[in-house]
Amino acid sequence: MYYKTPEKLLATESTLNGNSKMFLKLSAITILLIFCYTSLSSTHAVVSRVAMPEGCARACPPQRNPSRFICARNSVTGVLGTFEGDCTFGRYNHCVNTRERYSFVRYGNCHSGDF
After folding, report:
1. How much is the pLDDT for 94?
2. C-alpha to C-alpha distance for 67 and 25, rounded to whole angstroms
3. How far is Cα 19 from Cα 99, in angstroms, rounded to an integer?
4. What average pLDDT score do residues 67-74 get?
5. Helix, strand or coil for residue 18?
6. Quick one: pLDDT at residue 4?
7. Domain identity same for 70 and 88
8. CB of 50 within 8 A of CB of 71?
9. Which phi-psi region, left, alpha or beta, contains residue 55 (left: φ > 0; alpha: ψ -120 to 50)?
10. Is 106 helix (H, G, I), strand (E, B) or coil?
11. Coil, helix or strand for 90?
């Protein structure tokens, strides 16, 4: 029979502990990445055409030019919306009326695949 010396047992045990710790770290990172991707993709999946909020100054309308549409996000619901008119976003890059606030995302069509 072959018996390991105490030094060899300790070396084997520390290697297993190191491998186990690395496996747990990688598993945690993988789960975190999956969770982040799922939460991001679910928030961007809802896109709707919304009316221009009252109190939002109108500038030049896009004149049937989709590249000039404004894509904005409702700051309360998180829903993305595309405005057919041009909305002047002020100093803080958002447009506010009495009930809703829209934060500018980008110009152009507001598709879920774009984010």
Report:
1. 58
2. 44
3. 54
4. 70
5. helix
6. 62
7. yes
8. no
9. left
10. strand
11. coil
SS (H, E, C) 26-67: HHHHHHHHHHHHHHHHHHCCCEEECCCCCCCCECCCCCCCHH
Shared-domain flag, residues 39 and 66 = no
Q: Which domain holds residue 21?
A: 1-43
pLDDT of residue 115: 46
Structure token digits, residue 70 = 């404004």
Q: Do residues 16 and 57 both lie within one domain?
A: no
Same domain for 38 and 10? yes
Answer whether 42's CB lies under 8 Å from 112's CB. no
Answer for the pair 115, 82: CB distance below 8 angstroms, yes or no: no
pLDDT digits (tens, 9 = 90+) for 31-62: 777 765 555 444 444 445 555 555 454 444 44
Which of 84, 30, 88 is closest to 61 using CA atoms?
84
Mean pLDDT of 4-10: 59
Nearest CA to 73 out of 89, 91, 57 is that of: 89
User: Is this model's pTM higher than 0.70 or not?
Assistant: no
Token pair for 16: 């297993």
- The number of domains in the chain is 2
